[in-house]
Write a structure and sequence with these properties.
Layout: H1 10-23, E1 27-30, H2 35-47, E2 52-53, E3 63-65, E4 79-81, H3 86-89, H4 98-109, E5 117-125, E6 134-140, H5 143-152, E7 154-155, H6 157-163, E8 170-175, E9 197-201, E10 206-210, H7 215-218, H8 221-237, E11 240-242, E12 244-250, E13 256-262, H9 269-273, H10 279-284, E14 287-292, E15 296-300, E16 306-309, E17 314-318, H11 328-333, E18 339-341, E19 344-346, E20 351-352, E21 364-365, E22 371-372, E23 386-390, E24 407-415, E25 425-427, H12 431-439, E26 442-444, E27 457-459, H13 472-482, E28 491-495, H14 514-525, E29 532-533, E30 538-539, H15 554-561, H16 565-568, H17 575-580, H18 583-596
Parallel strand pairs: 1-5, 3-18, 4-9, 6-8, 8-10, 13-24, 24-28
Antiparallel strand pairs: 2-3, 5-6, 5-7, 9-10, 11-15, 12-13, 12-14, 15-16, 16-24, 17-23, 18-23, 19-20, 19-21, 21-22, 25-28, 26-27, 29-30
This protein binds oxalic acid and manganese (II) ion (MN).
Manganese (II) ion (MN) binds at residues 243, 265, 294.
Amino acid sequence: MIDPKNVKNKALVDWVAKVAELTTPDNIYWCDGSQEEADKLFNEMIAKDACVKLNQEKRPGCYYFRSDPRDVARVESRTFICSKTKNDAGPTNNWMDPKEMKEKLNGLFKGCMKGRTMYVIPFSMGPIGGPISQVGVELTDSAYVVVSMRIMARVSPKVLDVLGENGKFIPCLHSVGVPINKPEDDVKWPCNPENTYVVHFPEERLIMSFGSGYGGNALLGKKCLSLRIASVMGRDEGWLAEHMLILGVKDPKGNKAYVTGAFPSACGKTNFAMLIPPAAMQKKGWKVTTVGDDIAWIKPAADGKLYAINPENGFFGVAPGTSMDTNPNAMLSCAKNTIFTNVALTDDGDVWWEGMTKEKPAHLIDWHGKDWTPASETPAAHPNSRFAAPIENCPSLDENWEKLDGVPISAIVIGGRRPKGIPLVYESFNWTHGVYLGAMMGSEVTAAATDVKAGTLRSDPMAMLPFAGYNMAQYLGHLVKMGKNLSMTPRFYHVNWFRKSAEGKFMWPGFGDNARVLAWIMQRQNGEAKGRETAIGFVPNYEDIDFDGLEYSKDTFEELMSYDAETVSAQPLKEELYEQLPNALKIEREALLERLS
Ligand code: OXD
Ligand code: MN
């Protein structure tokens, strides 16, 4: 524990006192992020039956939580950008007048921590003290949030040293929204779904989240700070906060390049960030390393290149579908010191989820806490069940992952789940064309948010629809502008790992075989690989892809690479958003239509 007497930052001390006065917790506890502290909190939660210590021989340092079934994902309908004007929030964000929202929230937060401890979590997104890093402080009444934050962010007394007496921090206030007035209120997973609000005040750089304990709504360093608030800071200060993985790729000659990738939630960013090239490519010397799997902060440096850091310290990955076949690096990342939420529990105190093993265990306790057998009709793990794993566990971690100034970005990969009409890969003609492709991105919806219909195609510009902290049209304009004055402008590559045949089967093996596409991308950057110009961008010929070790016919490849003019030129944006787009992007659309005609 940090002794509050040693905290020198007056603004922080005052803010903590003000929040305590409003929320009336029984205690205030300043977290130091240590293992001892986490052990104590885990033990307290275990004593209340709110947490399960997993089999320590099989999963050392690992714990398991089951949430309230009403609190399993981000709630986009309850996520607000309360900028001063509605136009600043734009046509795709929920907005409410900041004064009105503050009044509403102050009403909800009043007395909401009664019977609970308020934890003060000083954290850094990015290496502590790094030039691109940001300091935040989360106040929360959830011990689950404390133990998760110390995995996902850097929680340490050193953060307060960096802050000093006058340093600025981003205030992040969180409550599960259930005061303990009587013993029955002290439930295992407190939450208040009827009154959930995840609110951002971009001008003040303030976050207030009420009523949910789910990671994306409650670990405020992640989506709230590192994407929504940081995107506004990037707009104001000339950098980018992106919903992107970062990976390193090394070719057989030993050249190394870094690539970022924007894919909507649950489209395989974690898998792509940790991919292991097929054996034949490994033998030649191809290697992929991981810098981050979800968020990139990207800044132009004095040399005119874009550099990126991963502000996080862990992976908050979707568990189902992860296996030693699909993503061994993710499996090994969550082999120890990991928190699992809403997966299933095996009889020997380990975890299981759909897709982890070919054969289903004969008996499990499912995410509802009920007996489960393969004959059960519901999945054992929630489709959005998660692991929060320390990044240092990752076997493919890149040697430069914590480089303070970030790694230089050579290419930007974008895409979504597109069963029809979109080819495996195509390269933008230039930066603005790339941003256009990013603006028109869409994906089949999955389970990462509760309130969007699964299975439908949804427009998701740059995979930032739920994460841009300001007007999406202005955000896309900022992206266009960021490409100017660079000495090396990364190309955009639109990829689609999810194309299906007429029979409904995936046409591309995906996972490790995506390295074949990555290799083409890297060789294009080096001027080594050929491509063919088409109406939609540059594409590889069959001969340009390394198919070593994979039987893939030229005919199937041609089919995979074909495009449907209507699909590639579809304009999926809300009319109101399209109208506000920067002219440069509208011109890109006209040029595309002309090339296609
Ligand atoms: C995530 C998401 O949790 O995008 O990363 O929903
Ligand atoms: Mn994400």
